[in-house]
Design a protein that fits this description.
By secondary structure, the chain is an alpha/beta fold. Helix content is 30%, strand content 27%. It is built from four helices and ten strands; from the N terminus they run E-H-E-E-H-H-E-E-H-E-E-E-E-E. The protein has a four-stranded parallel beta sheet with strand order 6-2-1-10, covered by helices on one side. A three-stranded antiparallel beta sheet has the order 3-5-4. Helix 1 runs parallel beside helix 4. The longest helix is centred in the last third of the chain and has 14 residues. It starts with a strand and ends with a strand. The relative contact order is 0.25. The structure holds flavin-adenine dinucleotide. Flavin-adenine dinucleotide binds next to helix 1.
Length: 154
C-alpha cells in the first residue's frame, strides 16, 4: 500500500508517521525547502504541544465534533506519541512543552522519526496536478507518482 502526504507541517509529518506505522510505504511532498516551518514559530519558539485541560467547551465551533476528537486522542495520548518518538515533555502551568523548550526539537524529531520509518520526504517540490486513474491517485511533481491513499495536509 502506497501513501502520499502533501504538506510537511505538523499534520503531514504526524500523518506520515501514522501511515508508515500502519505498514504503508509513504512519500511526503512539501513545496518549501524545509519541513515544519510553521512549527518553529509555535508557542513563541517553544511549541506548546498540548495542554492538560482540553475540554470541548474551551474550543470554538462544533463542540460535539471536538468532544469526539478529544475522546479519540487525549492530551495523554499526545504526550505518549511525542515521548515514543523521543521527546520528553514538561508541564508549565498546564501547558505542555518539549523538555528542551525548543520548537526545533519537535520539528527535527518528527522529521527524523518519519525518516527512520522509511518515509521519503521530498522538499522543494510543486504539485502540477492530481488525478484519479483506475482507483489510484497520480500526483504529478514533474514525474508522476502513484499511490493508493492520498492525504492532503496543506
Ligand atoms: C504564531 C503562532 C503560534 C502558534 N503556536 C502554537 C502552539 O504553541 N501550539 C499549537 O498546537 N499550535 C500553535 N499554532 C498553530 C499551529 O502552528 C498550527 O495549527 C499547525 O502548525 C498547523 O499544522 P498543519 O500541518 O496543519 O499546517 P502547516 O504547518 O501550515 O503545514 C502545511 C504544509 O503544507 C505545505 N503546502 C501547502 N500547500 C502545498 C502544496 N500545494 N504543495 C506542497 N506543499 C504544500 C506548506 O508549505 C506547509 O509546510 C500557532 C500558530 C501560529 C501562527
Amino acid at each position: 500500500m502506497k501513501t502520499i502526504v502533501i504538506g510537511a507541517g505538523a499534520s503531514g509529518l504526524v500523518a506520515a508517521i501514522a501511515a508508515a506505522n500502519a505498514g504503508s510505504s509513504v512519500t511526503v511532498i512539501e513545496h518549501n525547502k524545509q519541513v515544519g516551518k510553521k512549527i518553529l514559530i509555535t508557542g513563541n519558539g517553544r511549541c506548546n504541544i498540548t495542554n492538560e485541560a482540553m475540554e470541548e467547551n474551551k474550543f470554538y465551533g462544533d463542540s460535539s465534533f471536538i468532544k469526539k476528537v478529544l475522546e479519540a486522542y487525549s492530551p495523554d495520548d499526545i504526550r505518549s506519541f511525542f515521548e515514543n518518538i523521543g521527546i520528553c515533555t514538561v508541564s508549565k502551568n498546564g501547558y505542555i512543552y518539549p523538555s528542551s523548550m525548543q520548537a526545533q526539537t519537535v520539528c527535527e524529531f518528527l522529521r527524523e522519526y518519519a525518516m527512520k520509518l522509511g518515509v521519503k520526504i521530498k522538499t522543494n517540490n510543486n504539485i502540477n496536478s492530481i488525478q484519479q486513474i483506475n482507483g489510484k491517485y497520480v500526483v504529478d511533481i514533474g514525474i508522476p507518482l502513484e499511490c493508493d491513499n492520498l492525504i492532503l495536509a496543506t
